[in-house]
Amino acid sequence: KKLWQVSNAFIIPEQERLAKRLTDNTFADFVFFSNSGTEATEASIKIARKYFHKTGKPERNRIITFQGAFHGRTLAALFAANNPKHIDGFGPKVEGFDQVPFADHEAIKKAINKKTAAIMVETIMGEGGIKIVPDVCLKGLREICDENGLLLILDEVQCAYRTGNFFAFERSGVIPDIVPIAKGIGGGFPLGACLVTKKVSVGMTPGTHGSTFGGNPMACVMGSAVLDILFEKGFF
Fold first, then answer.
1. What is the distance between the alpha carbons of residues 152 and 171, in angstroms, rounded to a whole number?
2. Taking residues 79-86, what's their average pLDDT?
3. CA-to-CA distance for 123 and 176, rounded, in angstroms?
4. Triad 187, 46, 225: Cα angle to 5°
């Protein structure tokens, strides 16, 4: 007897409530909802590129990623990770990504040029072998980004809500610019989200991006039900 799907052309109270709960409890100022993690990652890539386009630096459209990464199954996400097993047969290559060895900060610094927009890394690398980015390295990445005017994207699609903290990066004290999440956030119901700061959201005006089913009432009720449990005293 209740709507579980309406167009995002309408105000969706359940979506607004979930977004506010997420922003009230995280670094983020805004949330874009999707159906999956790979869509959340795609939104992250688009937001980063659009930010520099909006701020007068359209040439800054390349993203540094890491060997062994996994960012999803869409074409851009596949070539962001550049895993030979996953990209085989899906050419031509989607441009815009520069890959470096995992945990090699010197290689990162060498890879940065006038076209670099962001660094994107999984806080805990899943497909790559459960490799944790140490807190000191997360701080180092934030410093590199700040020194070079880059955005820091921490992909928490696989690890958000699942590590004893809301986000795996929280213990480091680092504040990222963009964080895609999914997997457990809907308690098994299809739900993804891209969390972003106000500063970085400037290019994402109405109509810039969208989703037919992302943020529908049913998914957002599920997302809030998960938060009801996570926010219980002592849960984490």
1. 16
2. 95
3. 11
4. 15
With contact defined as beta carbons under 8 Å apart, do 115 and 81 qualify? Answer: no
Residue linked to tokens 């062994």: 68
CA dihedral 48, 93, 207, 47 (to 10 degrees): -10
Dump pLDDT digits (tens) for 159-171: 999 998 999 999 9
Are the beta carbons of 228 and 26 closer than 8 angstroms?
no
Amino acid at 31: V
Catalytically active residues, by annotation: 70, 155, 183
pTM summary value: 0.96
Q: CA–CA separation, 81 vs 93, rounded Å?
A: 11
- How far, in Å, CA of 183 to CA of 207, rounded? 26
Question: Exposed, middle or buried by CB within 10 Å (0-12, 13-18, 19+), for 101?
Answer: exposed
Residue with tokens 């996570």: 230
Give the pairing type, strands 116-122 and 97-100: unpaired
